[in-house]
Structure prediction request, 252 residues.
Amino acid sequence: MGSVGAKEIPVLLNADGRRIDGRRLDELRQLSITAGPLNQADGSAFVEWGANKVMAAVYGPREVHPRHLQENNKAIVQCRYNMAAFSVDERKRPGLDRRSQEISKVIAEAFESVIFVEEFPRTSIDVYIEVLQANAGTRCAGVVAASVALADAGIPMVDLLPSVAVGKIGGAIALDLKKEEDNFGEADLPMAMVPQSGRLVLLQMEGHMNREELSQALELGVSGCRQIHEKMKAALRERYAPSSANPSEAAA
Ligand code: CDP
Prediction:
């Protein structure tokens, strides 16, 4: 532990290039995705990613409320990202704050660019993301969960939308920051990518990186998104064709 004033700052990267949880710089936290855990929603998914626990539910296409938001030539995508009061160390004040509004907006825009919205004029596709336990990267976990939930709801899309945050810790570029790394690191760069084309549909940055670090971070993020994409597809296969997801089970 190093210290600045009264605050203890953890050593984020040790001499062997390992992180506080033992991961290498290019390693994801453990990720498990369950498609379709909720009965009431049109589509749903639950994601456990490191210490994050995030549920997503999707409704639609359905009638737009309020009506004046209706668009004659396409569906609108509405998203509500919410952190439960019990999801963080210090109880979070319930309700929509500026952060949740910003995250809801960037996620809705990301999905609007991959859903075939022209196929459902005058309707709304509603995405609900509930963070039950937070440990950094919750907007990315939300995108992953919502994307699988949209597929579970049968909403036609260009592709699934894997998402991950890359960052800079102890002077090095690292994949999938956990909370201490997000809090005490030098930069945090959440992204979401269309796997087919490599197009980024969500990209934000907090902190500082130079041009070279940024391109290294993007490259690392792309490789992370490709790994996450495989897990998203596996979760959907597990729900809709469990025998093909696990050939040994089929043989049993
Ligand atoms: O979660 P994400 O990394 O997408 O967003 P962030 O604004 O960078 O927040 C990083 C982390 O800080 C969250 O995942 C939570 O663990 C924590 N946080 C918190 O403890 N209380 C808040 N009101 C907001 C965030």
About this structure: Residues 31-235 form a domain with the Ribosomal Protein S5; domain 2 fold (CATH 3.30.230.70). The chain has one domain: 31-235. The helical segments are 98-112, 138-152, 179-184, 211-240, 242-245, 247-251.
